[in-house]
Each structure stands twice: as structure tokens, then as C-alpha cells.
UniProtKB/TrEMBL annotation, chains A, B:
The keyword Coiled coil does not apply. It is found in: Membrane. This is Sulfate transporter, permease protein, putative. It holds the Pfam family Sulfate_transp. The chain crosses the membrane at residues 31-52, 105-124, 131-153, 184-202, 222-242, 271-299, 311-329, 349-369, 376-393, 405-433. Signal peptide: none annotated.
Length: 581, 581
């Protein structure tokens, strides 16, 4: 990147950076992208609000101020911020535990959640704690997104069936729907099923169909994106024309015609405490999703994003949502890709989208009065099923059982015990499996490849060995989890091989020796000394050596430190006794 | 070791191994050791029972059956099993939460704790889960033992002062003692302070004193070990002769004259649930302490212990304690060293000690009727103060701030919030610090040392570089915690250096690539491909390569895999474009 981030204002507000070179061409590209994204966002915003259990306008409001704030503080030039499926699900799960859906308390809880989440993101950004997001491993995220997709799609079935059923886990949702099956509204089912089938066809079959009819690729693309709008208009008109609302079809109803209102989150200590953990979870998941989208898009134009600044951008967006009637938001994959493909050049495209949505909020909301909830549910189902990717199970199984275990645990526990338990279990499983893997490091006995200075595993290669010299290559950093393993290993190897007079530890792959490992090495050294066996180290890396020098190990070592394994071999295998003195 | 563990009976009961070669010389050595250890154990067992809040005989009973069972199942030839200070403290803390001291429920809770702990240890042994103990890093153990020593010594002050005061944390204990200062019994203080001073002098000053008087070293040693017995006899006689019990000096009182009784632990679900976590904690801490003692002693005779079999030995000992009126036990440092120094050759020495203690339990208990509790408290204080080692703070500070943090957190939290919170916080701190350290791995840009095949950090050495080829040596295994770090690093380096046409990752110190890191590498590969930059790997280890071959990365790699970094350099730096194809 050509910018130099010196002025603090430019450091925290990248808008002062790209804003200086903004020109007419960028403006017109941004405008075109904004129009396309606005049209796509209207039904999507209404639908995600429904998923979060909030009134439909909350989805629109959550797309206005957050977009503008992200444009000011964010570093990605194409990321589109707003309500997304997974965060909406997490929101419903979190605030469903503190308030009843449809009450004023529920909406305030949503604002509070956005406030906490925004505050947490900003703090993480200021203290540069973005690396914390790395504790969510890729398999855990993949498993979580897949399970969330299944949960979301299932939770929308009630709108398609026209019954009321609540639940936050797969068994709960299915049981609740099962218990209300006698209340199914068949007109709603017909609308919902038709809309779902239509949207699936638009997604999979429309483009080839139009192309066969001779339409240009661009035309076909635009038609595909307009699919949800067609479904919305079609079903709304049908409900209005045949007075289906009178037949029990649930509709969106009155949506206030207004710009985003000024709102205040709740500041009661109980509420803040109850929502803190979910807010942290939402922040981290939202951040991870957003950063990976932003990074992918930035790479395509050889641009960079700054993850710590992204935290501030997303945090500002969430704080904005908290004070303007929204709920937690993040950078969404679908909308960002559309924005990018439509040619957005700068975050100004986002600002123009916000203006488009504001106009819609003021003037278009009466048009969705007759829009059936079933259509919105169909939009959600079609969107989230693309998140469900069970192939991650197959891929991780082939690559590593540990990663497979983490994915499987995350999916199963998210579906059966809910999103929060699922993610927590996934993170804990990943950490424990990592510690387990490093707790039994690969240690190879090595010998010299004849005529060379290379040392290789004696089990895999024909190499020179000496029964008096035991050379072990340690293929792992040494720290508390595996310190005792090495201690036991050396002790048992030396006791088995009675003629051993020297042990050489080859440290080429040892990147760290922590205090536990240091004490283990000291214990090994003392025990080997008692047995009259020398302990030597070879190929110790600079940073590791710097640290070892601060301990007593080097002074007390019953042997030498060799720069290369070959030095060790030449010295010890030729004149072993002399070297130990 | 010369034994071959083939028969299952010999695998699980090492007694069939050493028992076959047992002879007269071993017998007489074991007998001598047993007599010395028995004399030392009588006051110690009474004292630790007092520390655990149990009647004095519980300490003796806990030293009989467990010793015999460990002799049958354990692998260390010198380890002496019985009540120890830290485990007694943990026992008091755990069962104090479910029952009132002095009640029948309290004793049953102690049996139940021993039962759960024994069961857990046996299960860990059968499933070979001994490595779990490694999660307790050396700094955490050192901090915990030191803090426990301080807590134990402070908790015994009440016996020296003759007041009643309960508490499980340092502030609690000090406040409780402060609140009862007006009740101090001055005769008790004189007995306690004299006994403490005498025992300190025996420990530090007696041996040089006797040596100056012309005594042999062996005589001086035996006299030192007999110190507690002298203190016990002296203060008991003083209390009896001057009827000090009538003056308010608390005494041991009646101890039943009996062999260990048959007892049953409690099996109520509530009790089991309440004690499960403390039992696991006690098991792991006891195991760690015991194994390190056993390993140190074994190394001195070039013997081996088997940690998984040790779990079974200690588990059997605890199950034995549960059914014979005892409480949780483990291998103690002091008694094991005495046993070893006294010449114990086989676990039979332990069995003879058990016989000695059984005789004491049947015949000698009336003799301790007038023994003041203050003397027992003095024994404990002098014993545990040798556990307190604050130098660990200084040592870890010098070696590594991360290890220092773990020690300091463990000490402070154990003292202020109690033993369980302290250990848990220590473990969590160690794990998080380890993850943090590996989350920002050392990545060095390397160049070739002129005229050689060695590659070194360009910041530390004068090396050959090529602006078109970026060579990065990754000094850490790649896994989810640091996957994104490398992703960001490569992306920003390539964008800074516009002329870069090739990135070579040198994997000589990469011991693992997990699925998250694989996906990051795939993302890096795809992004570099978009930028028309090649991605190459060099010096990939066998096990890592085996795994990468199971993924698509190798097939899709926009570059090559080189056996050595030098091959990569020769190929790319000379004909860079040709190589990318």
C-alpha cells in the first residue's frame, strides 16, 4: 500500500486516506454498486430481523448507521456491513434468554447486545487483541457455520408452516414444530413452498435458462440478484389481491415510516452481566467472518486490510447500531461479494447504500405491509443452506483425526445444546487436542548418512551409529505439556542401552524451552551425571540459546554444546570419554 | 531393567517380579529401613491427620493398608506412601465444604474422597492417561507447593496459640486467628514455641553440634531423625507430670487401640458429585509429587519407574485407605528419602513399616493420650516450611516472564482464593500463555551465506538476497492459533515488496500443519496466484509432507516443493519465471 500511516487521525480513520484521492470515476462506480446492493438488502434486512426475533424495521435500521460508521473507520474497501444470518441467530439465542420476544425489553436487549459487542470490539482493536480470534480454529468455525445454517433453516420452518414454535436447539425446534403440526396454515405453506422453490430455481437454474434464451451474462446476473425482490413483490401482491391475511397468513404488517430513531441501550447491571458472554462470542464470530471476507476481497486487488483497525471499524458499526434502533452487525459475505462484483471502489459505496436504505425506510415501508413472513423465511432458508457444508467432515477426516474431532464436536453440540455451548466446546476441544498432540512429540534416534554431514532417523535410513552415543532429534518445542515425556524417554533409553556413554539432543526443531522443560533438562542432566553418562546439545537456535544462557543448565551441563550435529558426532564418536570431561 | 513384562499378572503386579529374587540380604536391609521409617512416621501420621481435621488414628490407619497395596502394585522400590502435608491440606479444604469437622460425616467424606481419588487414579492408569498430569507445569506446581506450605504453616498457628479458628485462605485464617487472640492459652504457646524452636534446631543445628562432640555421622543422622520423637515424648511427659491439660492445653486424648477398622466410603450421589472435582485435583497433584520423588530415587540406582503403573499403585493405595479408616495418600518426599537413605531395597520395606505401624496402633496409642496438639502443629510447621521456596519467583523472572506470571498467579490465587482456584488458575494461565507465545511465531527472512549452502536471518548476517525471491523461515509449528498470523504476514510482505515474484517458506522447524493452517496456506496460495506470485515450500519434514499429500495444497501449489532451501534458491534466484510455471 502506498499510504504512510503517520497522523493519528489517519491511523484510526482510514477515510482521510482514501478520501483525498476520491474522484468522479470512483464516485460513479460506487453509485452503481450502491444501487444494486440496496435492492438486494431490503428483503434481506427484513428477513434477518425476523430471524433475530425483532420487528422488520430493525433490520433496515441496522443497515444504515453501521454502514456509514464502517466506511469511516474500516480498512476494507469492499466490505458491506449489516445484519447477517449467523449473528442474527446468535442474537435471538442470547436475548431470548433475558426477555420475551415482541416485548420492549427484547428490543432493548438487542440494542444492549450491540452496544456491548461494539465496545468489546473497539477495546480489542485499541489494545490490538485481534489475535484472540485465532482461538477459533478453521474446523470449529466451519462446523459452527454449518450447524448454524441447519439451525436457522429449521427455525424458519415454522414461518413456512404458519405455526408458532420456539426453540434454540435442533431437538427443541423439531419438538415444538411437531407439537403444533395440527395448526398448520395450508395457504401459508403454499406461499412459503412456492417462494422457496422459486428462489432455489433462481439461484441454480435461472442463469443457464436466461443464457439459453440469449440474454447477456450481465443481464442474467442482475436478474438472479433481483430474484428475492420478485418473490417479495409477487407474494405481497398475491396476499393483497386475495386478502390472504384474512385467511390466517401472517404478514409483516405496519412498519413505521421513519429514519433510524435515536435509541439507548439498557444499562442495568443485570442485563449487562447476562449479555456480556454472548456479546463477546458474537463479536469474535462476527469479526472472524468479516475479516476473512475482507481479506479475500482485498487480496484480489492486492490491497491490505489491518485486522486491528477492522476491529475498530466493526466496533464503531455495532455502537452505531446500538444507538439507532438496530442490533449486532458484521461484514456479510453475500452482500460484500455483490458490492465487490458490482464495482465498488471505496467505502463510499457503503455510504451511498445507506442513503438508499434511508430513502426506503422513509418511503417504501408501506409497500411491505402485505408481505408474508413465509416469503422472508424462504429467503433465509435459501440463503443459509449455502452455508451448510458437511464436506468439511470428510475433508478433515482425510487430513487429520484431531481436526475431524473438533468439527464433529462443534456440529453435534451446536445442534443439540445450542450455539454458545457448541462454540465453547469447539474451542476447548481444539486446544486440548493441540496440547495432546504436542504432549507426545516425535523424537527420532538419528545416525549419520555415510560420507555426508546429514543425520537421519535410524529407522528410515541406512546410517552410521555408535552404541556409546545416543543421538535424539527432538521434533517439537519443549514446554510443560511434553517436558516429562522427554525426561521419561531419555531415562528409559539410557537404562535399556547399558553401553551408552553420551546422549546428544539435536535441537534443530526446538523453537522454545520453557521453565518446566528447563527443569526437566536439569533433572535429566543430574540423573545422567549420576549414571556417568554425558548430556550434549546440538544445533540450538539463537533465541533458545539466549534463554538457556540465563539458566544454570549450561554451566552445569555434563557435556558440551555443539553448533552442528556433525561436530557432536565427530567429537563424541571418535573420542567419547575425552569429550565428557 | 532386566525384567520382561509379558505375563499380565506381572504387568499389573510388579511384586511378582522383584519377589522372585528376594533374599536374606535384601530382607535385612529392608527391615532396618522399616524400623527407622516407622519411628519417624508415628508422630508425622498423627500430625497430618490433625492437619486434615481428622482424628489422630486416621493418620496411622492411612499409613498401613496403603503402604502394603503400593508395595504390591507400585513400580518404585523406595517410595513410601502415606499421608502427606499438601494432600492433607487439600483433603481438609475439600471435605470442609461438605461436612462439619469432628462429625461422623466428616470422616465418611474423607473415606469417600480417598475412594474417588483411588478410582480415578486406577482408571487413569488402565487407560494410560498419566500424561494428563503434564498439564500441571513445573512453575504451577512449585507455586502451588510454596503457597500450600504457607497456608499450612499459618493454619497450624491456632494450635500453637491454643485458639480455635477455621479458614481455607490466608486472609480467612489470619482474620479468624485475630478474632480469637483474646483466648490465647499461654501454656500452650510456651509448649508450641519451645517444640518449634527445638525442632528447627534439631533440623539445622543438631548434626554439626553432635559432630563437634565427636559423634559419628550415622549417629548424628539417626539423632536428627529422632528429633520429633524426642519433642513428642518431652512435651507429653510435661503435660502428664504437671497436669497441663487441666490448664486448658489441648491434647490428643483417647486414641482407639485397634488395627485399622474395615470402613465403607459414602455412596450418596450428592456426596460423590461434590467431591469429584477435589478428588481429581488431589489425584493429579499427589501423582505428580509422587512420580517426581520416585523418578529421582530410581535414577540414583539406574532403575526405571513406569508412570502408568504408578497410577495403579497409588490408586490401589487410596482405595485401601478408603476401606480401612484412612484418607487420601500419596508418595511422600520426606519419608521416601528416609526410606531410601536407610537402605530400603524393595517395596517389602514398606510392608515391614506397615507391620511396625500396626503394632504401634494396637499397643502404643495410650502413650499419646497426653501429647499436646501444639507439638504436632510444631512438627507440621517445621516440615512444611521446607516446602516454601519463593526463589522460584526470582528464577522464573530471570528465565521467562510467561513462566513467572504462571507462578505468581498460582501463589497469589492459592493464598487468597484457596487451593482449588489456585491450581485451576495456574493451569489455565500456563495454557493461555503457551498459546499466546505460539500465536506470534518467529518468522525470519533468510538469505544465503555467500559460498555456502546455509541460510541465515538477513537481519543478523551478511547474506545474499534477491528482491524477486522472498525466503521466510517459519520457526514454529503451524496450527490454528497462528495460522492467520502467517497469512497476514505473507500478504503484507508481498504487498510491500512489489517486485516479489516468489515466496519460499522454509519448513525445517515446522513439526505440524493442522487443518486450519492448511486452509491458511491454501488461501495464501490462491491469493498469491491472483497476484501472479509463486509459492514454494522447502525442507518439509517427512510426517508433515505425508499429511500435506492427503490435501489439495500440493496439487494446486503455484510453485514447487524443494528438498533443501539451497535447491529452492538455486532454482528460483537464477531463473525465477521458469520455476513458477
Amino acid at each position: 500500500m502506498d499510504r504512510t500511516m503517520t497522523h493519528p487521525l489517519r491511523r484510526y480513520m482510514p477515510v482521510f486516506d482514501w478520501g483525498r484521492t476520491y474522484d468522479r470515476k470512483a464516485f460513479s462506480n460506487d453509485m452503481i454498486a450502491a444501487v444494486i446492493v440496496t435492492i438486494m438488502l431490503i428483503p434481506q434486512s427484513l428477513a434477518y430481523a425476523l430471524l433475530a426475533g425483532l420487528p422488520p424495521e430493525a433490520g433496515i435500521y441496522a443497515s444504515i448507521a453501521p454502514i456509514v460508521l464502517y466506511a469511516l473507520f474500516g480498512t476494507s474497501r469492499a466490505l458491506a456491513v449489516g445484519p447477517v444470518a449467523v449473528v442474527s441467530l446468535l442474537t435471538a439465542s442470547a436475548i431470548g434468554q433475558v426477555a420475551e420476544q415482541g416485548t420492549a425489553g427484547y428490543a432493548i436487549a438487542a440494542l444492549t447486545l450491540a452496544f456491548l459487542s461494539g465496545g468489546f470490539l473497539v477495546l480489542m482493536g485499541v489494545f490490538r487483541l485481534g489475535f484472540l480470534a485465532n482461538f477459533l480454529s478453521h474446523p470449529v468455525i466451519a462446523g459452527f457455520i454449518t450447524a448454524s445454517g441447519i439451525l436457522i433453516a429449521t427455525s424458519q420452518l415454522k414461518h413456512i408452516l404458519g405455526v408458532s414454535a420456539h426453540g434454540h436447539t435442533l431437538p427443541e425446534i423439531l419438538l415444538a414444530i411437531g407439537a403444533h403440526l395440527n395448526e398448520v396454515n395450508w395457504i401459508t405453506v403454499i406461499i412459503g413452498a412456492t417462494a422457496t422453490a422459486f428462489l432455489f430455481w433462481v439461484r441454480k437454474g435461472l442463469k443457464p435458462f436466461l443464457t439459453r434464451l440469449g440474454a447477456s451474462a450481465t443481464m442474467a446476473d442482475i436478474a438472479t440478484k433481483a430474484g428475492p425482490v420478485v418473490a417479495v413483490v409477487g407474494t405481497t401482491v398475491a396476499v393483497w389481491a386475495f386478502d390472504l391475511a384474512g385467511q390466517g397468513v401472517k404478514i409483516v404488517g405496519e412498519v413505521p415510516q421513519s429514519l433510524p430513531p435515536l435509541t439507548l441501550p439498557g444499562f442495568s447491571l443485570d442485563l449487562l452481566q447476562a449479555l456480556l458472554v454472548p456479546a463477546i462470542l458474537i463479536s469474535i464470530i462476527g469479526f472472524v467472518e468479516s475479516v476473512s471476507v475482507a481479506q479475500t476481497l482485498a487480496a484480489k486487488k492486492r490491497q491490505c486490510i489491518n485486522p486491528d483497525q477492522e476491529l475498530i471499524g466493526l466496533g464503531a458499526a455495532n455502537l452505531g447500531a446500538a444507538f439507532t434502533g438496530g442490533y449486532p452487525v458484521t461484514g456479510g459475505f453475500a452482500r460484500s461479494v455483490v458490492n465487490f462484483d458490482a464495482g465498488a471502489e471505496t467505502p463510499a459505496a457503503g455510504a451511498f447504500t445507506a442513503i438508499g436504505l434511508a430513502i426506503a425506510a422513509v418511503s417504501l415501508t408501506p409497500l411491505v405491509f402485505f408481505l408474508p413472513n413465509a416469503t422472508l423465511a424462504a429467503t433465509i432458508i435459501v440463503a443459509v443452506l449455502s452455508l451448510v457444508d458437511l464436506s468439511i467432515l470428510k475433508k478433515t477426516w482425510a487430513y487429520s483425526r484431531a481436526d475431524f474431532t473438533a468439527v464433529a464436536a462443534t456440529i453435534v453440540l451446536t445442534l443439540t445444546l445450542g450455539v454458545e455451548v457448541g462454540v465453547a466446546a469447539g474451542v476447548i476441544t481444539s486446544v486440548l487436542l493441540h496440547l495432546y498432540k504436542t504432549s507426545r512429540p516425535h523424537v527420532a534416534e538419528v545416525g549419520r548418512v555415510p560420507g555426508s554431514e546429514h543425520f537421519r532417523n535410524i529407522l528410515r535410513h541406512e546410517v552410521e551409529t555408535d552404541p556409546r552415543v545416543l543421538c535424539l532429534r527432538v521434533d517439537e518445542s519443549l514446554y510443560f505439556v511434553n517436558a516429562r515425556f522427554l525426561e521419561d524417554l531419555i531415562q528409559s533409553r539410557v537404562i535399556e542401552g547399558c553401553s551408552i556413554a553420551h546422549v546428544v539432543l539435536m535441537f534443530s526443531a526446538v523453537n522454545e524451552v520453557d521453565y518446566s522443560a528447563l527443569e526437566s533438562l536439569e533433572a535429566v542432566n543430574a540423573r545422567l551425571k549420576d549414571m556417568d553418562v554425558g548430556l550434549h546439545l546440538s544445533e540450538v537456535k539463537g533465541p533458545v540459546m539466549d534463554r538457556l544462557k540465563r539458566s544454570h543448565l549450561i554451566d552445569d551441563l555434563n557435556g558440551q554444546i555443539f553448533l552442528s550435529q556433525n561436530d557432536a558426532w565427530t567429537t563424541l564418536a571418535d573420542h567419547p570419554r575425552a569429550a565428557a570431561e
